[in-house]
Amino acid sequence: MSHPPIEQQITFLYTHSLTVSTRFYEDKLGLELWLDQGSCRIYSVAFAGYLGVCQVSETATPPDGKHRSVIFTIVTQQVDEWYEYLKQRGVEFEKPPAFNEKYNIYHCFLRDPNGYLIEIQRFEND
After folding, report:
1. Which of 57, 60, 86, 120 has its CA 20 to 30 A from that of 5?
2. pLDDT tens, 38-50?
3. Mind listing the domains of the chain with CATH numbers?
């Protein structure tokens, strides 16, 4: 028996500064705000795929810096174009675009203001 249908998917990331994260995801990545819930802003990433950025209380502590266990991956054929687009907006990259032979992908990595790892990749077809 198959499971009931899935209509949408949202990945939530938490931040101590919703304002700083809002500027990054709206102004740098250019994501469109889909739903503003006050302390959470949900962005449309792709058809039925969303990213939620939520204010966390000052007492809650998400994982530190480079030890976050979430990777937000954007899949696109235009990895180099995204790299140039974001570099022009002052975004620093951890790893410039490169081919990964193990996974047969072309990708690059950057971090958002909260330390979450963002990967921009395309799958290479043989």
Report:
1. 120
2. 999 999 998 888 9
3. 9-123 (3.10.180.10)
Which amino acid, one-letter code, is at 39? Answer: S
> What is the DSSP pairing of strand 40-46 with strand 49-55?
antiparallel
- Residue 29 CA from chain centroid, whole number: 9
pLDDT tens digits for 6-53? 788 999 999 989 999 999 999 999 999 999 999 999 999 988 889 888
Please name the amino acid found at residue 5. P
CB atoms within 10 A of CB 72: 17
Please give the Cα distance from 19 to 117 (Å, whole number).
19
What is d(CA 40, CA 15) in angstroms, rounded to the nearest whole number?
10
- What are the distances in angstroms from CA 30 to CA 18, 25, 60, 87, 126? 16, 6, 28, 13, 31
